[in-house]
Design goal:
heterodimer, A: mainly alpha, B: mainly alpha
Chain lengths: ~120, ~140
């Protein structure tokens, strides 16, 4: 039997990569940008943050974290809607919406981080 | 060549209640784990806005900060942190099942793979804190 070639393995890899990178980086980043810095426990200067985030490798890392995290979300959310809410007839629509949104955010991130 | 076989057969359709996952604890845990992906997406968007504000200039960073210091923003972040921690822990605990690493002809014990993930998590988190401490 000839198996149909699909794009699914690509989405699965993005899901896996995104799951790993988000599990490793996001909790600490959230504690820093969302709790520790706003509460003034640590108060980095604007200049310091700017010089930390300006080099291309910092921006590339942020792009990787944001984009892969979004594709991780897309894959999980797709199957949560699909299986959890039993929305089998809408599989295609759900997939296009989820991966489409992840791609859109990734493109915006490229624009924000590298072009703007 | 594709040919439709038995076109007039009525397909058996299983009807499952949309809240099927609420009757067992393990299913609720499973759905909760899947829903952590919403926290992952939400925070990665906030992170993107944060970095955008820093790259744009001091005024936009100030504006971002005035949002981040509001009690509502703090509460949202604490809730998101709960989701992110649940994501990290469930992800690392599953890692040994997803990757089987062989050394010689023996598999490396799962607990070691999970442990390596936790160590990586710890090291990266400390590094990020040190980076911010130094600016």
């Amino acid at each position: 039997m000839k198996r149909k070639r699909t794009i699914e393995p690509l989405f699965w890899s993005l899901f896996g990569g995104g799951g790993a990178i988000s599990a490793l980086f996001l909790p600490a980043l959230l504690v820093l940008t969302g709790i520790v810095i706003p509460l003034g426990i640590l108060s980095p200067s604007y200049e310091g943050l700017s010089s930390l985030l300006s080099p291309w490798y910092s921006r590339l890392l942020i792009l990787g974290i944001v984009s892969l995290s979004m594709f991780h979300w897309a894959h999980r959310f797709r199957f949560t809607l699909h299986e959890g809410l039993q929305l089998h007839p809408y599989d295609k629509t759900i997939a296009v919406f989820c991966y489409g949104l992840a791609a859109l955010v990734s493109l915006s991130a490229v624009f924000i981080l590298f072009i703007q | 060549m594709e040919r439709k076989v038995m076109p007039n057969i009525k397909m058996y359709k299983r009807h499952i209640h949309i809240l099927w996952w609420t009757n067992r604890w393990i299913h609720i845990k499973f759905i909760a784990r899947e829903l952590t992906s919403i926290c992952v997406a939400a925070y990665s968007l906030i992170l993107l806005f944060f970095v955008k504000a820093v790259l744009t200039g001091p005024e936009s960073y100030e504006a971002m900060m005035s949002f981040l210091v509001s009690p509502l923003a703090i509460i949202i972040h604490v809730l998101l942190l709960g989701g992110l921690l649940f994501h990290s822990i469930t992800w690392f605990n599953l890692a040994p099942k997803a990757m089987v690493i062989k050394m010689g002809d023996k598999n490396i014990p799962g607990i070691l793979i999970a442990l390596a993930n936790y160590v990586g998590w710890f090291v990266i988190s400390i590094l990020l804190f040190v980076l911010i401490l130094n600016v």
